[in-house]
Amino acid sequence: MAATIDTEIQNQIMEITFRMNEKNTVDSSFGIAVEKILEQARNDASVRGVIFKGSNGFFSNGFDPNAFVGTGQKEIEAVIGPAFRLCGYLLDYPLPVAMVINGHAMGFGAILALYGDFRYMQSKQARFGFPEIQIGLPIPAAPALMLQDLTNRTTCRDMILGKALKGDQAMEAGIVDGVFDDDEAMMKQARKDLSATFKFAPSTVAMNRRMMYARYKATIPEAIEQDVKLASVAIMAPAGQEGLGALKEGRRPDFSSVE
Fold it and tell me: In this model, does residue 211 exceed pLDDT 90?
């Protein structure tokens, strides 16, 4: 299943909308498709900023569990690898990026959102979190580092242990820049904040963005490669297979006989 991702350029901003499936879960085509879109945007002089947003009440609900149950390391890494490396690509991206979290951002959806410069969240139904531990998986090291830099260690600990945040909680934790009741209000603020950077020289904006993330340059790419390998091992382990199988079947996982 190829990722369905809509793009539209409005007032020098590339707006990227996820429409992959009902919950905007991610498959092997996602990371490659989004990186290709971003590459086109960076080579288009008329584009000065990028907005990511979801649809159907989901920014993204993470990876598709069907891709991981009963499969091998090669197949698992074919899904995880491009998605995780997309995050690393965003760290060195020259254009400012806004994440409009207009629905649930869970697992990889939350991971991807961490790599934006601006984040806005829907106030009523959206949740932001990392449910990995609930399905027998560890949180990857790279987003754990990013999360600790955005919020305090206590909140990071609680989220790693499975706590999902509502919009106002994410705002209080310092994860999002604003909470809004409707999508249009979020988009209006995202466009306004990105447009504020257009008065500066594009080369300066690009350099300043790279300087802001310079401290990650040596650590995040290495962590991402380790995360890809660790995730595939964890997914194939008994705890991962039980958790993902339960998710696929719509039941609670039973870890009573799993180490």
Answer: yes
Beta bridge partners of residue 120, listed in sequence order: 100, 178
b/e burial code for range 234-251 (CB count within 10 A of at least 16 → b): bbeeebbbbbbbbbeeee
Tokens in use for 45? 């002089």
User: What three-state secondary structure class fits 122?
Assistant: strand
H or E element at residue 110: helix 108-113
3 state DSSP class of 97: strand
Domains along the chain with CATH numbers? 5-182 (3.90.226.10)
Q: What does the alpha-carbon distance between residue 71 and residue 148 come to, in Å, rounded to a whole number?
A: 32
Residues 6-35: pLDDT tens digits?
999 999 999 999 999 999 999 999 999 999
**Closest to 75 (Cα-Cα) out of 25, 140, 28, 109:** 28
Question: What is d(CA 109, CA 60) in angstroms, rounded to the nearest whole number?
Answer: 4
DSSP notation for 7-62: EEEETTEEEEEE-SSTT--B-TTHHHHHHHHHHHHHT-TT--EEEEE-BTTEEE--
Q: Which tens digits make up the pLDDT trace of 28-38?
A: 999 999 999 99
Query: Mean pLDDT over residues 198-205, rounded?
Result: 97
């891709």: which residue's tokens? 67
Phi, then psi, of 97 in degrees rounded to 5: -125, 130
Q: Within its chain, how far is the Cα of 250 from the centroid? A: 23
pTM of full prediction above 0.90:
yes
pLDDT at 218: 86
| Ramachandran assignment for 162, one of left (phi > 0), alpha (psi -120 to 50 degrees), beta (any other) | left
